[in-house]
Amino acid sequence: MDLKLGFRASPTISRLFDHASDCVILQDDTLAACRGLPSDFFKLIITSPPYNIGKQYEKQVGLEDYLAWQAVIASELVRALRVDGSLCWQVGNFVHDGEVFPLDIVFHPIFKQLGLKLRNRVVWHFEHGLHASKRFSGRYETLLWFTKTDQYTFNLDSVRVPSKYPGKLHFKGDKRGQPSGNPLGKNPSDFWSSLADEWDQGVWEIPNVKANHPEKTSHPCQFPIELVERCVLALTDPRDWVLDPFAGVGSSLIAAWKNERRSVGIDRDPTYCALAHERLMDFDAGRLKIRPIGKPVHKPSGREKVAQLPMQWVQEANAHYRTENGLWNDPD
């Protein structure tokens, strides 16, 4: 289905909370804005909060102060979440003096104390990122999916992935000889990859938004639209409201709009809010470059120049081998 315009012939974007809008972009402090939102309203709250690692849009503070600030915001978010709603909290690590503190671990008790129930801890794997020199380079982050109650939306069929062995049959019992899988595909599990053969492994292998990503903007830690879109499809229904309390340049808003959901995004940075508005308008006009959901991650064939060993390395390795084995005077 063509969703170029989301679900209106003419999209409506508001800078103040408005039930009649398709999308609301609030330029404000997250906590102040959340306090002005209605209770029991949002079907899905999804975000990637600041990791407190000193990015340009945040001031690094001690871990305890950071968590205390986030706990107050979390309380407001739970208040605004519908009884049948879901909250998805995507985080990485806080690093201090070379020591790693996994943020999903420290956030879990905060949401648990607020009465939420953890349904999945999803691993998001990506191939590229900063290279560490004193520990293994980080190549995954986590998404915690909580629900407010046991009555929640879960549209599994909308996010099923192709089965690796669709012809597999029951080998015993009343259904012996009948197909054992689901004709719509299998459950993608909590360790996802991007469709094609990668989805068969159950890994959320969605590229992070770096320099050559089609969605890249000036934001240093941008949410991939595809990551949000999968949660939107699985955890909401058309016309439901989605909230991103740290919306940045609006990837969550685009994912919601694309799939006929309404949304609210909050960010205190006027530049990011303007970019979010511009990206929504570009999506509406068919100009926005986005990575299609389920597009396989590029795998080099080995023939590309960039996939070849540099000749300098080959020559240095050969020289080292000859030196170590005393072969410099070998006529061969």
SSE topology:
Blueprint: E1 13-14, E2 23-27, H1 30-35, E3 42-47, H2 63-80, E4 81-91, E5 93-96, E6 99-102, H3 103-113, E7 117-125, E8 140-147, H4 196-199, E9 204-205, H5 225-235, E10 241-244, H6 251-258, E11 262-267, H7 270-284, H8 311-324
Parallel strand pairs: 1-2, 2-11, 3-4, 3-10, 7-9, 10-11
Antiparallel strand pairs: 4-8, 5-6, 7-8
Helix pairs in contact: 2-3, 5-6, 6-7
Brief summary:
The protein is an alpha/beta fold. Helix content is 26%, strand content 18%. The longest helix has 18 residues, at 63-80.
Describe the structure.
This protein has eight helices and eleven strands. By secondary structure, the chain is α/β, with parallel strands linked by helices. It has a single domain (13-302), classed as Vaccinia Virus protein VP39 (Rossmann fold, 3-Layer(aba) Sandwich). It has a nine-stranded mixed sheet, with helices on both faces. A two-stranded antiparallel ribbon has the order 5-6. The N and C termini lie far apart (67 Å).
